Amino acid sequence: MAEPQAKSSSRAPRNNRATAVHLRLRKEIVSGLFPQGSALAEPTLAEHFHTSRAPVREALIALEREGLVSFEKTGRTKVRTIAAKDLREIMEARAALESMAARLANLNWTVADTAFVAKNIEDQEKAGSFAELSRLDIDLHHYVVSRSGNLRLLQLWEPLRWQYEAYLVEIFKRQSTGDYRPETETVLAHRKLLQALSSGTPAEAAQVMMDHVLFNINWAD
Q: Considering only CA atoms, which of 63, 59, 52 is closest in space to residue 20?
């Protein structure tokens, strides 16, 4: 079963070139190529993407709406720095939305869904970097929210996805101390979640998802 695809946001750039820049720059921000606080000068980005400044400007506006970019009073544009308070609020909002999504997804769950998520978890075990692990982690959660069948819930969740994914690599780095291995713990948590989604009750799926999302709140500070 192919992963359900969300409709394009009405806030996304309409120009094809601007859309391409928007998607590429968003990917580079969430992967850490442009770290938090990085300057995003239009002329430099235009050269980077081999385009004019107009598509870059439109892409930056879209990214500001997604919470990944900030426009300063000085006229400079930067990758938004997500403070501990921001991260806590993002995770609390995700917990509320995703626990409901898991409840609904449990009612819709199929053998094909189990196979899709199991393959994602298998890929997490093979991830070669925290950036790849982060992407697979969020892709799994996107799949579950999509399987809820509630389009409005998905539309509320999507902006949180990009803000959280941009910070998840940093969380994994913080967790990777002592005997704690975030890649191992993430896989174990997702296996437990898959069990609840595939063979648990809706209430169990909701609770496992709630606990899983809120676990990372301990690493917000």
A: 59
